[in-house]
Each structure stands twice: as structure tokens, then as C-alpha cells.
Design goal:
The complex is a heterodimer. By secondary structure, chain A is α+β, with helices and mostly antiparallel strands. Chain A is elongated and about 65 Å long. Chain A is 37% helix and 11% strand. In chain A, a hairpin with a 2-residue loop joins strand 6 and strand 7. In chain B, the strands form five sheets. A five-stranded parallel beta sheet of chain B has the order 5-2-1-9-17. A five-stranded antiparallel beta sheet of chain B has the order 11-15-14-12-13. Chain B is globular and about 75 Å long. Chain B contains 16 helices and 19 strands. Classes of the chains: A alpha+beta, B alpha+beta. The interface between A and B is large, with 80 and 83 residues.
Chain lengths: 253, 638
């Protein structure tokens, strides 16, 4: 198939970028979106031009490295699918495709389609863990976890940290991402001891990193390649409210 | 080359405990005086960095990804083995040890493998405590599934995303240490060389992948947890960025490289659809628990719709050839059987390079919802890639390169032949012999990182004393200059071909001559082709852009340059190992039924290659393997 591509080119974070037109012939409909970009880059290199920089790694939809706004949608039109798992059979021959980096203030562009998502790292470092020093764990079966709780925790834990939720949100809110992490760890009995401080620290760090608030549009969940449900935000808000109130009373005493 | 394995004395079951007692410790108050570099942030590197940080060492951790959570351990699907015997089906440390040794075709060290089995239970405990959402039964206790090469159910899993969940556990623990300042994390940094001072590993040189800056880092010890080298085949199930560079640089600095020819082909991958393909995708082997593998009995039926082929016209070849293990026969055996069926003209799908994996029996026995619960995400993944629905039509699968058992040689302490350079996880050669059993890679990576290196590293540090050298020293400057010269050479080749095109060509050569089945003539041919391809690479390579900026062409070119040398080493080893064992199948050594024939008399050993400079061929040394508790038998899964 033939494609007209409009791709965001930006040398580095210090300069402004622009959309550049490219034409690509002979794309296999069985190739993935990133394989289509590989083909373009081979073409560019053979012409002595600099290839388009984009992030990618596992190419099987689990590492969360790939991103891209495709025709304005994070990870493109296919539901529950990362860019690397999106296949060209979902596009029309002759179609024009606009390819941009994820757009969000806390995710500055590094080069072309590559963005800096280290703001997510800080949130995990602030509290996205259960403190369990190596070697200190009791027998795995000493902690029974209700099956439905384990399943819910797993649903939340399947987040790949790609940042599509932030890119889709008009407020650049990270609440789906943070909510997923909070839900995963706060739902489990192992995470109960740190439940309050976890949610308080993570939300504090999220605000500090410049992510916006949630105004309940649900775009985040709609584009999430792992279909993390909006419930995780409700869960986080509930845990946050409870922790805040508890904090007031603890401090008053 | 000193290949003393340092296996502790005493009975097998007591070796590790005795060793832990005998080796030296570092006092908690002194640990902050030591600096440790960890390269790689997957299960092995991430768990090591987190655990060493917790103990109080100053840790510097490096990864090429934009976050440690993205290391390729994340893609492991099926599960992690542990000898918990929660199923009351006769499992024990000894049985897990025995299965692993046998699965490895008696080409691994007894003491290492036993220790791995002993630690397997601790790993599960640790991961549960971290909040890894393992599958549960209704009573709230942990669920298990069975996996290839074992007759007990000992595999713990988190849907089809076990690697992801275990890695996130390690990543969370690592993040905690980063937050506390105990670990300094350097993302988007690629290690390009190892620095030795007075014969000890004392640092690394990295390239910042965003700015292109070349930097030196010094430490009291260096831990490499940089994964395997499957990408030498270009098409593999590894992530696009996985590479051999860190391990290969260490080899060039004097670390012995062990058994590079031991590669594992995974039997259940999605077949290649065309030349555009950049990678192959694995479907977890756990699918073989409920799926039945078959091809048509008659080559004439291959083009038919699978549902139209009658039961009696199907050849369930694994069940036929290996009645007691059936569809759960080990990976190497399953892979070769698939190749045989396709070579016999009975393959299905594009190019006849595929076999069916059929779930219709399991769906009618257990119901679609049970299958969905067990493998839902795998079926979705299959549909996304192929556009086919595997609930209605059997999957098509074909073997693909997946894991490499070879790696840098390490002793019982996981130390390479370079003192102070420790190697963990897939990057070392230690525990899987010539073939790795399913759900054992996660176990090994975490055993190395959580439970072995914290002890054995302390022993080394206590012996050498604290004091990382300055990076202003001559040793660092020399290595840095070498790294810069190499980058300049890549940038100034001024040819016409992209690094990727050379990588593809190399991949075709190694797959053809050093893939699922190998023979002397083919390997010799490969050994002629690779050096000439390498020559062409250096004269006709084109790398666009500059060194001092983000430059993905340059990154790839550097990795391909190392693969072009490494591929030759792998073939040399495959030619030298004149026997069949595990994943290394030499056509000259097989039974009439096509089973591998080992040569225990000459090859009950580890081949360790020593780099001798650009002009001279590498020299092989061997470490003899001694079997005291098990006696090597013919690996039979009939």
C-alpha cells in the first residue's frame, strides 16, 4: 500500500519542530506501524537523510516504550493496542497519516517523536512500592489473597507505563497511571501497612511534576492499550480522602 | 585463564549454606564506603541493584531504556518455577534440580543448579511480599500450572504477564532505593566498555544516548546483567534493543565467554509473515498445557482449512513420539519436531513454515471461559498480529530464537574470569546447560539478583577493601579514547548501506548455518561468510548524523559491529562442539529417530573462549563438569 505521512521532526528540545511530508510506497498491510517507520527510515538513510527518531523496544506491546500520536490518537485508532502492535491492515491504501509525539507539558520532546517520561519515575520513587526488604518475606502462602482481589490488583498492575493516558487528557492528568499503581498495591493485603502514606506521597509527587487534575472525561481509559478502567481513579481518590482525613486527626493528636 | 569454579565442599544440599557461612561479610557500617556498578535493570540487574541498595552499598545502575521498568524481562509470559510443592504432587528441591540438570542435557554445574532450586521458594515469598499479583485459587492461596520438561505443577504465574509483574516488583523495590538516594539510576545510558585497573574490573565507559556524551564511571566492582544475544539472529523474540555489546566488550577485556553456541529456539512463536518483519513474537509455552500440536498427515492437506481435516488425518506428532510428555516435551525437542514436520512438507501457513496449536479439545472440555481466563491476552495478541481468531481456528506456530544459555563464564560466586566483574541472569552461562526449561529464566535472574550476589559480592569487596579509583587515571582515559575512536570509525565509514541491512544479512547467515540444526560444512561456510560481511560492513556502512546527539543509527551500528564479531565466535564454538546436546543439535550426531546424541567422553565440559586480539583466533579452554549426584543419562521424554 501507498501512504502519505506527516511526521513531527524536531532536532532536539532546544529548537521548535514542524510537520514534514513523506511518501512511502510498497508498505505491506501485514507489517506493524513501527515496521512501516523502519521502512521509511531505511529509505531516508539510503538517501543520506537523517531517519525519524522514535522510541520502541519489545515490539510486542508490553514494555511500554513506544508511544506516538497517530492521527491525533495516542497509539492510534485500534482499541487496546500499542503502536508496536498496530498493523497497517487497519489503514487505507493512499491514506494520509499524521504522526506526532505524545503531547503533554510534563513529557517534553527529546527529539522527533521521542519524549521524556521521567516524571513517571519520580512518582513510583515517591511511594509506588511495598517495602519488603529482600530476604524478609514470610512464606508465600501465609498471606491469603481473595481471588477477586488478586484479579482486580492484576487488572490494575497490567499498566505498562506508556503515558498514553496523559497524552490523551486535555489536562495532561496522570491519574489513570497513578491510580493504577495505587490500586494494585493498596488492594492487596501486603500493601495495607503503607496504604495511606503511599497514596499521599504519590499524589503529592504527581502534582509537583506538573500533571493536571482529572475532570472525568475518560479519554485516558479509552486510549489505554491495557484498558485500565476508570475505577482506579475513584479508588485512588477514595484512598486519598481517607488518608488525608486520618492525617488531620493524627496531626491533631 | 583461571577457570576454577570454586564449588564449595560438602554434600550437594549443604554447599550453599556452608559457603554462605565461610565467605566474608562487609559490616553494615562499612557498606556505604563501597560503590557498585550494575549494568542492566531487568530481573537480574534490577533485583541486584535494589537488594544491594537496601544493604547500604552505593549503587550506580545503568540501562539503555528510558526506564528500568522496560527491560526485556518484562516480556516473559508464562511463569516462574519454584519447588514449593504446594500441589502435593511430589516436588522437591532435588526434583527441580534434577529436572533442570536433565533439561540442560547434563551440561551445567550440579552445585549451581542445586542452589538455584534451593532458592526458588524464597523468590516466590519475596515476590508475593512485594505485591506481585500471582494467580490465586478461590481459597486465596497461590495457584500453579505445569510447564514443559516437568511432571509436576510448580509454575507460579500472573496471567500471561509473569515477567512483567516480577519485573515491576523488582522495579518498585529499585525505585524505592532510588528515591532514598541509595541507588543512582542512569537511564538511556549504554555501556560501551569495561575498565580494568590492576587486573580488576573497576569501572565502565558509557554513552549517554540523548546527548551522545562519553563518560567514565568508577566503582569497587562491576555487575553485568545485560541479557542474552538472541538478536545476533536479527529475527528473535528479543526486544529490538537487546544486544551483546556489554558482554562482548567484557570478553575483549579478558572475560571468558562460555558456550556461545548454546541457543534456545522457542517452539511456540507466531510464524514470520514476510520480509518487512522486525521481530518474532512468542506465545507462552504454557499454551502447550491445553493446546495440542499437530500437522496434517498428508502434505496434500496443508492448504485445507484446518477444521476440514478429519481427526484421523491429523498427526499429533508430539503425543505420538513422546507419549509420557506429549505436548509438554522440552523446548528443543518440540522445536526440532516442528522443523522436521515442515521439512517433510507438512507445514501450514505462509511458506509452509508453521504447525497448528489447537485448543478445540480444551475448549470443549473446560469451556471457553476457562481458556480465556488462562490465556486471554495471548489469544488477543495472536489476533492482533495475524488477524485470526484462535478460539475458532487453531493457532499457527513456529520455532524462533528466544534465549541464549551461553554467556560470560562465571564461577560459583557469579564472578567472571575478571576479578570484580560479576555476571548475572541471561548474560552468564551458569545454570541452564545446553537447554533451559520453561519458567526457569525468571527464576535464575531473580535468584542471582536477590539471593546470590548480595553474599558473593560482599566476599569480594571484603577481600579487596573499599576504594574506587579515580576516573582520571590512565586506564579510564585509554578505554574512553578507544570508545571514541570506534564511534568515529562508525561515523566515517561513508558507505551506502544501513546498519540494519547488515544486521538482517548476518541474521540470515546464522539462522541458516547455526540455527535449529547445524553441521560442520554449514558452520565452515558461515565462518567464511561472516568475516567477509564484516569487511563489507566497515567499508560500506552508512551512519547518518553525529556522535554528540541522539543518534539511533549510530547505536544500532555499534551493536551490529559487535554481533558481526560475536556471530563468528558462536559458529566457531558450534563447530568445535562436535556432539549434539540440548539446543545445540549437530546433524552428524543423532539417532535413527533424529534424537540428539551427546559425546560425554569428550564434551562433559564447558567451552570457554579467550579473546586474543584482532589478528589471532580466540583460544578455547575447558572447565570439566563433574556429576556426583546425578549420572548423565540419555535425555528421554518418551
Amino acid at each position: 500500500m501507498k501512504l502519505n505521512l506527516k511526521i513531527w521532526r524536531q532536532k532536539n528540545s532546544a529548537v521548535t519542530g514542524r510537520l514534514v511530508d513523506y511518501q512511502l510506497d510498497d508498505v505491506s498491510p501485514d507489517s506493524s506501524f513501527l515496521e512501516m517507520l523502519d521502512l521509511l527510515n531505511e529509505q531516508l538513510v539510503s538517501e543520506g537523510e537523517e531517519p525519524v527518531a522514535f522510541d520502541h523496544d519489545c515490539r510486542e506491546g508490553i514494555c511500554g516504550t513506544c508511544s506516538l500520536n497517530i492521527n491525533g490518537i495516542p497509539h492510534g485508532p485500534q482499541k487496546a493496542t500499542t503502536t508496536c502492535q498496530l498493523h497497517m491492515r487497519h489503514f487505507e491504501d493512499g491514506e494520509t497519516i499524521v504522526i506526532e509525539p505524545f503531547r503533554a507539558k510534563p513529557f517534553p520532546v527529546i527529539s522527533d517523536l521521542i519524549i521524556d517520561r521521567s516524571a513517571f519515575e519520580g512518582i513510583t520513587q515517591a511511594g509506588g512500592f511495598i517495602t519488603a526488604r529482600t530476604g524478609s518475606a514470610p512464606d508465600g502462602n501465609s498471606i491469603a489473597v481473595r481471588k477477586n482481589i488478586a484479579e482486580k490488583a492484576m487488572d490494575a498492575a497490567s499498566c505498562i507505563g506508556c503515558g498514553a493516558c496523559v497524552a490523551a487528557c486535555k489536562n495532561a492528568s496522570a491519574m489513570l497511571y497513578v491510580g493504577a499503581k495505587v490500586s494494585h498495591l493498596n488492594l492487596l493485603p501486603q500493601g495495607a501497612a503503607e496504604k495511606d502514606r503511599r497514596v499521599l506521597s504519590m499524589v503529592w509527587q504527581m502534582d509537583r511534576a506538573g500533571f493536571g487534575n482529572c475532570t472525568n472525561y475518560g479519554e485516558c481509559s479509552a486510549v489505554c492499550p491495557k484498558e485500565i478502567p476508570l475505577d482506579v481513579i475513584a479508588k485512588m481518590n477514595r484512598d486519598y480522602a481517607v488518608a488525608t482525613v486520618k492525617n488531620i486527626f493524627t496531626q491533631a493528636m | 585463564m583461571n577457570l576454577r569454579p570454586r564449588i564449595p565442599s560438602g554434600p550437594l544440599a549443604n554447599k550453599w549454606d556452608n559457603h554462605k557461612f565461610r565467605i566474608k561479610l562487609v559490616n553494615p557500617a562499612n557498606r556505604r564506603k563501597y560503590r557498585v556498578i550494575v549494568v542492566g535493570s531487568g530481573l537480574a540487574g534490577g533485583s541486584a541493584a535494589a537488594s544491594l541498595g537496601e544493604l547500604g552499598y552505593n549503587v550506580l545502575c545503568f540501562c539503555y531504556q528510558d526506564s528500568p521498568r522496560r527491560a526485556h524481562s518484562i516480556a516473559a509470559q508464562g511463569g516462574i518455577n519454584a519447588s514449593k510443592n504446594y500441589q502435593n504432587d511430589g516436588d522437591s528441591d532435588y526434583r527441580l534440580f534434577y529436572d533442570t540438570i536433565k533439561g540442560g542435557d547434563y551440561r551445567s554445574r550440579e552445585a549451581n543448579v542445586y542452589r538455584l532450586a534451593q532458592l526458588s521458594g524464597n523468590i516466590i515469598d519475596q515476590c508475593v511480599a512485594q505485591g506481585v499479583p500471582f494467580a490465586r485459587e478461590y481459597g486465596g492461596l497461590l495457584a500453579n500450572r505445569s510447564f514443559g520438561g516437568a511432571q509436576v505443577s510448580r509454575t507460579f504465574y500472573a496471567r500471561g504477564q509473569t515477567g512483567q509483574q516480577l519485573l515491576l516488583g523488582a522495579y518498585n523495590a529499585l525505585s524505592r532505593q532510588i528515591g532514598l538516594g541509595q541507588v543512582k539510576m542512569y537511564n538511556r545510558h549504554e555501556m560501551l566498555d569495561l575498565v580494568l585497573v590492576n587486573g580488576h574490573a573497576k569501572g565502565i565507559v558509557t554513552r549517554n544516548l540523548v546527548t551522545g556524551q562519553i563518560e567514565s564511571w568508577s566503582a569497587d566492582a562491576v555487575i553485568l546483567a545485560t541479557g542474552g544475544y538472541s538478536n545476533v539472529f536479527f529475527l528473535s523474540t528479543n526486544a529490538a534493543g537487546c544486544n551483546v555489546t556489554a558482554a562482548f566488550r567484557a570478553y575483549k577485556q579478558g572475560a571468558g565467554f562460555a558456550n556461545p553456541c548454546y541457543t534456545q529456539i522457542h517452539p511456540t512463536c507466531i510464524p514470520q509473515a514476510g520480509d518487512h518483519q522486525s521481530k518474532l513474537t512468542l506465545m507462552s509455552e504454557s499454551l502447550r498445557n491445553d493446546g495440542r500440536v499437530w500437522v496434517p498427515k498428508d502434505a496434500g492437506d496443508c492448504q485445507k482449512e484446518p477444521r476440514e481435516i478429519a481427526e484421523e488425518d491429523r498427526d499429533y506428532y508430539l503425543e505420538r513420539k513422546y507419549p509420557s510428555f506429549g505436548n509438554l516435551a522440552p523446548r528443543d525437542i518440540s522445536s526440532r519436531s516442528a522443523k522436521e514436520a515442515c521439512d517433510d512438507g507438512r507445514g501450514v501457513g505462509p511458506g509452509g513454515q508453521g504447525v497448528y496449536l489447537d485448543f478445540s479439545d480444551a475448549i470443549s472440555r473446560l469451556g471457553r471461559s476457562t481458556i480465556e481466563e488462562r490465556y486471554g491476552n495471548l489469544f488477543e495478541m495472536y489476533e492482533r498480529i495475524t488477524g485470526e481468531n484462535a478460539y475458532d481456528r487453531p493457532m499457527r506456530i513456529y520455532p524462533a530464537l528466544h534465549y541464549t544459555m551461553g554467556g560470560l563464564w562465571v564461577d560459583y560466586n557469579l564472578q567472571s574470569t575478571i576479578p570484580g566483574c560479576f555476571v548475572l541472569g541471561e548474560a552468564n552461562f551458569s545454570d541452564h546447560g545446553a537447554n533451559r526449561l520453561g519458567a526457569s529464566a525468571l527464576m535464575q535472574g531473580l535468584a542471582d539478583g536477590y539471593f546470590i550476589i548480595p553474599y558473593t559480592l560482599a566476599n569480594y569487596l571484603a577481600e579487596t577493601g573499599a576504594g574506587a579509583p579515580s576516573t582520571d587515571g590512565r586506564e579510564f582515559k585509554d578505554v574512553e579514547a578507544g570508545v571514541k575512536a570506534r564511534i568515529d570509525r562508525l561515523l566515517s565509514a561513508n558507505g551506502k548501506r544501513s546498519a540494519r541491512s547488515f544486521h538482517m544479512e548476518l541474521g540470515k547467515i546464522v539462522w541458516e548455518y547455526c540455527g535449529m540444526a547445524r553441521n560442520a560444512a554449514g558452520l565452515q561456510k558461515g565462518l567464511e561468510l561472516i568475516p567477509s560481511l564484516r569487511e563489507e560492513f566497515w567499508s560500506d556502512l552508512r551512519v547518518t548524523g553525529q556522535g554528540e546527539e541522539l543518534n539511533m543509527e549510530l547505536e544500532r551500528a555499534g551493536r551490529v559491529a559487535d554481533f558481526l564479531e560475536f556471530g563468528e565466535l558462536m559458529m566457531r564454538d558450534a563447530l568445535d562442539r562436535d556432539e549434539s546436546c540440548g539446543g545445540h543439535f549437530r546433524e552428524e550426531h543423532q539417532t535413527k529417530e533424529g534424537e540428539a546424541v551427546r559425546d560425554d567422553e569428550n564434551f562433559t565440559n564447558v567451552s570457554v573462549w579467550e579473546y586474543k586480539g584482532e589478528k589471532a583466533p580466540p583460544v578455547k579452554h575447558t572447565e570439566d563438569l563433574h556429576f556426583e549426584d546425578v549420572s548423565p543419562s540419555v535425555r528421554s521424554y518418551k
